């Protein structure tokens, strides 16, 4: 299975790319995908609409962002089938120097689902605020080929690498010289008035209970000297059992079952 890393240059590749993304984050099921790529129904037509809608939004975001770099990994032995992909953002200056923007979940109609999604996305924007030039990455089912490109590019440009991703993927990242800064909670904070919150909001909170992402960093050229004393050290037991527990915490049923069609 000879794999090749290639730039993703055409909107025509997006449906296959997005299908790969949704498959990668479907086992175990990531509640985050239900927020950013809602599914209205369970038949093949609904699945197709989900892929096409998310593809259009992602291509628009990429094509209007000069920092965005899209890549695909293709299997040349299977007619260049897309088997992985990634989006990197290369920031040559602080992208938040004028403040952290607010996320707008425009794909949701007004209501609790839109509000909840925006609360989670704004939390992500807060933790992305690095305050310096860097290369930023959110995993989309990619692997070693993506990381090898990133380390070469970062070293060439003299930039740090920052990753926000599933705790389950952290073994790949630490293999390429990154360290875990923290495990960040993504759920909106509990509000005092939440006992009276809309049932739809409560369902989202239950579905995304324990939603976390690992925040990782690699300094310029992988040189950690001078960083450890500032607190950039791995946190927690970086073993398989630790990551299994992270997933178990999210997937263990509680007394209330969320029932959503998204």
Walkthrough of the structure:
The chain is of the alpha+beta class and 262 residues long. 36% of the residues lie in helices and 19% in strands. The protein has 8 helices and 7 strands, in the order βαααββαβαβαβαβα. Strand 2 and strand 3 form a beta hairpin. Helix 4 packs across helix 7. The longest helix has 20 residues. The two termini are 35 Å apart. 24% of the residues are buried.
What are the SSEs and their pairings?
Elements (H helix, E strand, L loop, with lengths): L2 E5 L6 H11 L6 H6 L7 H20 L4 E8 L5 E11 L20 H17 L5 E7 L3 H14 L2 E6 L4 H6 L3 E7 L13 H9 L4 E7 L21 H12 L11
Helix pairs in contact: 1-3, 4-7
Quickly count the helices.
Answer: 8
Gap between N and C termini: 35 Å
Q: State the share of residues found in helices, binned by percent.
A: 25-40%
Structural class computed from helices and strand pairing: alpha+beta
Q: Specify the biggest β-sheet.
A: 7 strands, mixed
Q: Which range does the strand content fall in? A: 15-25%
Rounded mean pLDDT score: 79
Uncertain runs are 229-262
Basic shape: globular
Q: Please list the strands of the largest sheet in the order they lie side by side.
A: 1-2-3-4-5-7-6
Tell me the number of strands: 7
Give, in order, the helices and strands: EHHHEEHEHEHEHEH
């Amino acid at each position: 299975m000879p794999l090749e890393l290639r730039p993703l240059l055409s909107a025509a590749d997006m449906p296959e790319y997005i299908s790969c993304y949704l498959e990668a984050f479907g086992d175990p099921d990531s509640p985050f995908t239900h927020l950013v790529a809602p599914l209205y129904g369970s038949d093949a037509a609904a699945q197709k609409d989900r892929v096409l809608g998310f593809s259009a939004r992602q291509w628009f975001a990429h094509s209007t962002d000069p920092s965005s770099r899209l890549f695909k990994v293709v299997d040349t032995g299977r007619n260049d089938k897309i088997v992985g992909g990634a989006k990197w953002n290369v920031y040559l200056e602080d992208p938040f120097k004028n403040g952290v923007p607010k996320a707008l979940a425009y794909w949701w109609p007004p209501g609790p689902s839109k509000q909840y999604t925006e609360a989670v996305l704004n939390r992500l924007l807060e933790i992305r605020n690095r305050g310096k030039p860097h290369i930023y990455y959110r995993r989309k089912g990619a692997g070693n080929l993506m990381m090898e490109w990133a380390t070469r590019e970062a070293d060439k440009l003299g930039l740090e690498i920052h990753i926000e991703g599933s705790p389950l993927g952290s073994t790949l990242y630490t293999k390429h010289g990154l360290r875990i800064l923290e495990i960040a909670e993504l759920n909106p904070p509990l509000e005092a008035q939440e006992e009276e919150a809309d049932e739809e909001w409560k369902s989202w909170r239950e579905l995304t209970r324990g939603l976390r992402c690992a925040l990782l960093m690699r300094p310029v050229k992988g040189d950690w000297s001078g960083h450890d004393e500032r607190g950039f050290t791995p946190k927690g037991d970086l073993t398989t059992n630790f990551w299994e527990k992270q997933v178990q915490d999210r997937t263990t049923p509680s007394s209330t079952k969320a029932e959503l069609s998204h």
